[in-house]
Target: Putative ion-transport protein
Amino acid sequence: MTEPTTDFRVPVRQLLKLTIPAALVGILCGLLLIGLSALAKVVEDWLWDDLSGLFGLDRDSPVWIVVILTLTGLLVGLVIQFAPGHAGPDPASAGLVEPPLPPRVLPGLALAMVLMLAGGVSLGPENPIMAINAALVVWIGARVAGRVGVPQWMALSTAGTLGAMFGTPLAAALMFSEMDPGDRRIPLWDRLFAPLVSSSTGALTMLLLSDLDMAMDVPEYPGLHVTDLAIAVAVSLGAAALGLLASYVFTPLHRLVHRVRQPVLLLTLGGLVLGLLGAVGGSITLFKGLDQMKQLPGMVGETTALGFLAFALIKLVALLVASSVGFRGGRIFPATFVGVSLGFAVSVAFPSVPPALAVGAATVGIIVAATRSGWLSIFLVVAIIPQATLIPPLLFATLAAWLLVTNRPELRAAPLDEPTPAEAGSGAPLTPPDTTEEQGSVDRT
Model:
């Protein structure tokens, strides 16, 4: 580990100057996430409850599921085809943090995100909201505080959005420490000072103005036994292997479906496939998966292990299809649902395995495979199952999964050799791809 040099003094005054801008960025990121999510919920209720009733159908009707998912594909395809900037570049090959987009792209991206969330597509809001918040923060920041560089605004936006998405600044703290951004002469906590202010205000905004709660009702873990370590490792490896299989399938599937060069047709066909998958798996396999995974504990007495396994596999296939055809959404939340479903499949098949242990180990396994972020994997499980006694076996499970997936592809498609029509018109980013450099550094002038 690199030690700070003795002749370097952290500019505390500069840290203090960044406190108010960082806090405002966090609040803005939280408000945008809350606002777009609330709008999506209004549209969702109208589509799935009010409109279905006009046709004498229930929201869980297989026919209605197929109709709404197909319609969602059509509408999102129209947005991508005709909106300025085509709702941004293809998200299948994008990571969670990307260079900021031009502001003209944001209305189309926001509309595509709202339609995706409301229509029941198996993707989460994480990638679109990160892009929207980053572009706005960079655009506003460049006009009100030009001396603060784009990388620093990106760091504040990323931290604020992470804090808002997960309702705690810990997610940003852990992920930024994993990135280890900035001038390494500066102590880590000084580099993280402004981003943590942003993530804290983002989390507070979310907690004060929404009902975010990721915790599931899972029986208390009875306590650590030596055999639990072996069980956690085995379950985690199995989940990580499934995630790796999906990773290897992703790029060929992405290239195959993009032989259809017309976004409206491609998204409509993708929506139809998602509707058919939803009709088979039921409404539990729709949407981003956060609310749906909370229903799984109550289904233990009436669902077999194969049933839970089917939920996981259908959700994973739906995730791959939705991402491949170009729906604007993220892969973390649906992958989490897959891990939770796999965990319940294990605990139902082997009743001696505590559900909390099985769910936690399966979730860290597939999230490590999907994201290559050990901290995010552990944090998500702690947020879902807030039981401190689970942490030791889950650390072993995470390390085992990490050994399996290292040097192998994460759950992201390789970029296409030639851009699609939507990509070609999405507009160049405002900065070069390398925006992580000096994310956490402070102005030393």
